[in-house]
Amino acid sequence: MRAIVVNEWGGPENLVEREIDRPEPGLGEVLVRVHAAGVNPVDWKTRDSGALIAWGEHPIVGWDVSGTVEAVGPGVTVHAPGDEVYGMPNFPRQAGGYAQYVTAPARHFAAKPATLDHVQAAALPLAALTAWQALVDTAGVSAGQRVLVHAAAGGVGHLAVQIAKARGAYVIGTASEGKHALLRELGADEVIDYRTTDFEDAVSDVDIVIDAVGGEYTQRSLKVLKTGGHLVTLPGPDSLPADPQGVHASWVLVEPDLAGLREIAALVEQGLLKPLVDTVLPLEQAARAHEIGEQGRTTGKIVLTVA
Amino acid sequence: MRAIVVNEWGGPENLVEREIDRPEPGLGEVLVRVHAAGVNPVDWKTRDSGALIAWGEHPIVGWDVSGTVEAVGPGVTVHAPGDEVYGMPNFPRQAGGYAQYVTAPARHFAAKPATLDHVQAAALPLAALTAWQALVDTAGVSAGQRVLVHAAAGGVGHLAVQIAKARGAYVIGTASEGKHALLRELGADEVIDYRTTDFEDAVSDVDIVIDAVGGEYTQRSLKVLKTGGHLVTLPGPDSLPADPQGVHASWVLVEPDLAGLREIAALVEQGLLKPLVDTVLPLEQAARAHEIGEQGRTTGKIVLTVA
Predict the structure, then answer these.
(1) A233 CB within 8 Å of a chain B CB
(2) Which pairs with CB-CB distance under 8 Å and at least 24 residues apart come from B89-92?
(3) Quick check: helix, strand or coil at residue B288?
(4) Are residues A137 and B105, on separate chains, in Cβ contact within 8 Å?
(5) Would you state the pLDDT for residue B284?
(6) Which residues of chain B have a pLDDT value below 50?
């Protein structure tokens, strides 16, 4: 099969096309024919700095996949050949998405939302599961709560805004002014232009902060939280306070989760959640996709199509 | 830490106590202090014949654990140190249960049912998830359906009877006569003594068969199913028909699943599901536990306690 392999950890030029063996589904695994693979910041961070956990002979990044089940390994009953599925195979282990086929434990995939095509569906798993696990599984968002989302028009942010809204929260988003109309359309109740306003002067009494920025944003976010509130940061644990003084502060590492993927698909099918796709490129242009992604100027996701 | 290691694949005498390094929780993992470890047939099958998937330096069996979270790795938010949890760590990969500590991805554990002690909770995960994934995730059991459970007083069977009953099904169980009173108490509507009656003469129009026996039972079970019904066999795929002729027939390989563990805990706390514990032994007597288990005369589970 064709795959984009990381030849050596480093810049985008290390993403090279190779013909490698098609994987076989093992015990409890599915083999998925990839139609589209979403691109995430963790892809280029991994490509640049190496894998978090030891990988095999052909390192392949890409944890966002939408495709068709080609075959199932022994013991798999939740999916069958021909099923259209989307998922986050193998995260945080060896990925496999930038290829014609990928294998993963069956519960890393769920039925693709019926109302989306493969390109749209491939934009969802990692970012939407991150937003879901931050808002629902970690912070326990409930109706009437005040939720502040940083980088609210970003990859995770635009989904966090919609999920919080679908759960009945009052949603405040930070973004540059050019994104404010979009955020209103996604359901944000208030928008703050971080270029002209310090958010901590404009908002207070927040129950949950979803922080996709990190660094000093994490520190500053502590000031706007109610006692007992939750700060969930996404980039990494480095900026978390050692003693958060009356609030909860945590870093969420997203996990594959069939139940979460099903909840997300249900929201999509109810019209409450839609992914934004910025750029679509063929698999062969994975290096170009990373270059675009690393410039940080996209609104919504970059997705690779796999022929 | 103390652990029972499989010194060499083979008989129970190969289970030996060793002092080995305590594992460290990696990215997204929890470290659990094991208070009790359930014993399952897959434990002695693995000990006897070797692992399904390559294992590390110190092979440790045991996938049923109840204990306390000692520490969490980076990115874990679903559990915190001090939480009492139960789960099925790492199945079907390197187990780790027969030891003082085990690490696994956080979602392999859920909050322990509040109404159970650690010994009872350690009897549940693998058998109850198997029953749940067979009945609910694979066969989609619903109220009013007719469910036939083979070996209904066995490790998976007694839980399948209760779960099917809790979902509103009409439940028929096969077991020797001495177990009939127990099955009635667990909620079975009909019981069949397999020693005196061929079940296919006594029952028909079944929607779902849960077959924990395999072999000729799998073949004979096809005759009692309605068109469109589900046969779910548990021992392995060998006895599955190539062409099941109008019914669904599948082998379920149980998978770690936070959502399933939570559903099971909820049934327990509602008083609708209780595990049967036959024998409790200290970890040091793991070999004795396997000898007892392999004789196949227990009613309910064998559980090891870990000091």
Answers:
(1) no
(2) B89/B32, B89/B63, B89/B65, B89/B256, B90/B63, B90/B256, B91/B63, B91/B126, B91/B254, B91/B255, B91/B256, B92/A27, B92/A28, B92/B52, B92/B53, B92/B253
(3) helix
(4) no
(5) 97
(6) none
Q: Which residues of B touch A78 (CB under 8 A)?
A: 137-138
- In chain A, which residue's Cα lies nearest the Cα of B137? A78
- What are the DSSP calls for B175-212, one per residue? E-GGGHHHHHHHT-SEEEETTT--HHHH---EEEEEES
DSSP β-bridge partners for residue B149: B173, B210
Q: Helix B258-269 and helix A258-269: axis angle, to 10°?
A: 90
The domains located in chain B, with CATH, are 2-124+275-305 (3.90.180.10), 127-251 (3.40.50.720)
B111–chain A Cβ distance below 8 A for any pair: no
Model confidence, pTM: 0.87
Mutate to test the interface with A, among B45, B88, B107 (most CBs of A within 10 A): B107
Q: Which residue has the tokens 């080609």?
A: A70
Chain A residues 246-265 with CB within 8 Å of chain B: 250-253, 255, 257-259
Q: Which of A93-97, A111-115, B97-101, B147-151 has the lowest mean pLDDT?
A: A93-97
pLDDT tens track for B242-289: 888 899 999 999 999 999 999 999 999 999 999 999 999 999 999 999
User: Hey, which residues 26-85 in chain B have their CB within 8 Å of chain A?
Assistant: 26-28, 52-53, 74-78
Q: How far apart are CA B162 and CA B169, in angstroms?
A: 10
User: Which of A92, A105, A259 faces B259 most closely, judged by CB atoms?
Assistant: A259
Which chain A residue's Cα is nearest to B254? A75
C-beta atoms of B28 and A257 within 8 A: no
Q: Which residues pair with A87 in a beta bridge?
A: A65, A109
Please state, in angstroms and rounded to a whole number, the distance separating the CA atoms of residues B117 and B196.
38
Say how many residues make up chain B.
307
- Report CB contact under 8 Å: B28, A92: yes
Instruction: Note whether A235 and A214 are within 8 A (CB).
Output: yes
Percent of chain A with pLDDT over 90: 89
